[in-house]
Fold each of these.
Amino acid sequence: MRKSGLYLSGPYGQYTGEYGDYIEWREKSISRTGKNIIIFLLAAVMAVVSVNPIAEYRNQIKAASGQESQVSVAEGADKEQFFLIPGGQQETIPGVPAENLKKEPGETLILLDPGHGGEDEGCSREGAEEKEINLRIAYQLQKKLLEMGYRVHLTRNGDRELTLEERAKEANETGADLCISLHQNASEEAGAEGIEIWYSIQNQKEESERLSRIIQKYAVQSTGAVSRELVESEELYVIRECTMPSCLIETGFLTNNAERKKLESPEYQEQLAKGIAEGINAYLHPKTMYLTFDDGPSEENTARILDILKARNIKATFFLVGENVEKHPEMARRIVQEGHTIGIHCYSHDYKALYASTDSYLADFEKAREAVKAATGVEAKLFRFPGGSINAHNKKVYQQIAREMTDRGYIYYDWNASLEDAVSNPKPETLIQNAVTSTLDRKKVIMLAHDVISETNQCLEEILDQFPEYQMEPLSEEIDPIQF
Ligand SMILES: [Zn+2]
Ligand SMILES: [Zn+2]
């Protein structure tokens, strides 16, 4: 894999990485070596007229330390650019033209865009300048993302002024997969605080929103900051003009004294970077959740669930009860029309009668299958045992039933997470909690819920909000079942 970064080894130690880190590394190295070297380096920068910044840098190190250093740069790093290190020292490092920053096949390139720079300080309070905090967080974030194996570029590596057009252009020309702008917030309300993420409704709206929601979740988890509502925008130039999913993160308020102090500290900047990086990683590696609803259809409750799923463009799976299908055939048809998967639960939800013997189970199933076929035309192949494949009522017969059903070409699906909503008087807060705690961050989740329970549809939206990092999919015969 070609790297566009610097590879250095010399008296300051060894360095491999991209420019953003290089500056930090260099700053630390310089402060270790002593301030007289800074003065020497600055003099050298001004005195030496050289077409090769790397050779120049090597000379500087040799002059300052009396030791040889090995300095090399990836091909294409031939354009000189001038940067100011936050803190004011002028630095010369090689830049790479945009066409050489293009990613290699198979790489994921993330463009970080620290807002403002140069004359444009952004907002500032009590000596804290937005442009510098944005850059510090970008460096930390770059480091985390590089450790995760992503390729990362910054629109600026130092205190450089860039137009908004240049920022968006770099994102588009390098073929970046994601673009993340970093900013600090300000408000007339001194108490305003927290993380606020903006996304453009004109650029990859759905993906940008999902990216924003996931980053928000992880950044808030990592920092304990207040979670502010996501903001849709038509105006913010960079995120609007980028062609890839993008967002603008206001990591905190410089106008809030307590939050500003945190934002200035390297420890808090690192926590922010960690959360944002984890969010980006979760966005790029989505997990899958299969929402399943048992025991329906019912008139009002199923309709409400379907409305919520439709508004979010989510497809789920409904394991139907034959008796209820006969009562509400139009609802069973609506489930199918709206693209959800239908499975069989049973005809009559009576454990004793159902599990009296293998024959009683098969007879009930056949009745349910016919009812579903008659109402919807669907020949269901998926099914779910009432109570799950192994339960208190079917211990003696479940193996024989499972074998027989498998022989007939049916597939049963248990679950590995549950709202636990089939209890008397469920409380919405408890159902939300159950959903979160039983999911356990698994990569593949089959969630058990019941569309006949009104509390379930009351809190379904909140439940869905808990899982931005999951893609919601319907079950199908191709999906490997989860079986107890
Ligand atoms: Zn800003
Ligand atoms: Zn059931």
Amino acid sequence: MDLEPTLFFNGVDGSWYCTRCRERVVKNGRTKGGKQRYHCRLCKTTKVLIPEPNRFGDRYDEQIIRLLKEGCGIRSIARLVGIGPATVTRKILLIAANVQPPALSEKGLSFQVDELHTCVGKTNRKICVIYSWNASLHQAFSLSVGTRSKASLRKVIEPLLLADARRINTDGYSGYEKVIPLNKHTISKRRNNHIERKHLSLRTHLKRLQRRTICFSRSAEMLEAVVRIYLWG
Ligand SMILES: [Zn+2]
């Protein structure tokens, strides 16, 4: 995901240096795509010259989407597709940027808004995944990955209100009262079994996706990309 140059060229001695450590790097084999790889002895990382963001076009996109939805982690996808993990990560971000929620053309639907709490990164930053779900269409319509702020709640709720939602059910968190009109809002932790069951499989799957991808990505951006692709890819 790191698209900043990590190497710089010194014209005086004709060598590549690590941008972070100012240490000369040594050649260290090649990537699967045939790029020269370098190794820095100081920070013990392997680097390539500025990665090309989209060198394979959409050739592997479908395969990546399918594997991601089956819950494969970045490394297994890289192995199965035969490209490097860094390329898989970049591709996932690119694919997710082009994935859109379905148009909410039907009026008067009921929605469940649910949350998943998780932590990302070395500092265990708390991340809240909030999404809306319609049980009869079996479809998510809006998503926010980040904090549980009013802005995040709005991002999830507003598209539903624009489509004239009949009812929006949430858990007991009081923040929702500020963004959902009283006459449309119901609060219930126990939903009917039918919704709950379908819903549960989504929760379980998302949890699994989170666990598997987070160990590699360590970022909220990556988590959002994976969830977007899972819901709408
Ligand atoms: Zn270094």
